[in-house]
Amino acid sequence: MCGRYATTRSEADLSDLFDAVDVTEGLGPSWNVAPTDPVPVIRVSASHDDKRVLDTVRWGLVPPWAKDLRGGAKMINARAETVATSRAFAPSFARRRCLVPADGWFEWVRTGKERQAFYLTPADGSVLAFAGIWSVWESLKTCSVLTTAARGGLERVHDRMPLILPPDRWAEWLTGDPVEELLHPMTDRELAAIDMRPVGPAVGNVRNNGPHLIEPPSTPAVEATLF
Fold it and tell me: What is the pTM of this model?
């Protein structure tokens, strides 16, 4: 699953990386994005001549038919295996797909009575693009991140991971037909470029933020059971 992630690039950098027009609302960097937070996404906008825009949405998709926003916190992820048939997610998969830029994401592994946090991020520092879908509830735009089965050693921290799209798949994801091929996971070679490293416990508190959250812990992490 993906329940916490980091996205710290500026609007200008994201606009350049994704060739998008910036229509965000002054979002700042976050090293600890949590459910219901406002997040940047790249989507295609009819009001901008079907060009890409960098927009701000609420993380946790709320279907148009929902009575209120409360269910959004439980709908931060959509399973790639069922997104095309789910009542809540299928309409967005068919017509409203987006890219969710990230630096990396966090997972936790229980070691005895303790939980060790891990940060998963490209070893070369490149941007990640999570496959996302978005919707509108009243006037509020919301989104979910698609997940798929973890592979390539990443299943050591969780059996699910974000569906990550390399740059050559961005255009098809945003504008292609809603077919099964869109949901292909990363290749083994692409997965090998993901670095998995232990970080300190501070990221577990959503009130904490800052670059220190992705730094190694002050005490040695328990890794023997993983590696």
Answer: 0.94
